[in-house]
Amino acid sequence: MKILIVEDEPSLREIMQRALVQERYVVETAATFTEADIKISGYSYDCILLDIMLPDGNGLKLLERLKELHKRENVIIISARDSIEDKVLGLEQGADDYLPKPFHTAELLARIRSVLRRGRSGGERALTLGNVSLEPDNGRVTVAGKELPLLKKEFDILLYFMQRPNHLVDKSVLAEAVWGDHADQADNFQFVYAQMKNLRHKLTEAGASLEIKAVYGFGYKLIPPVEEA
Question: Which of 121, 143, 168 is the last residue of a domain?
Answer without folding.
Answer: 121
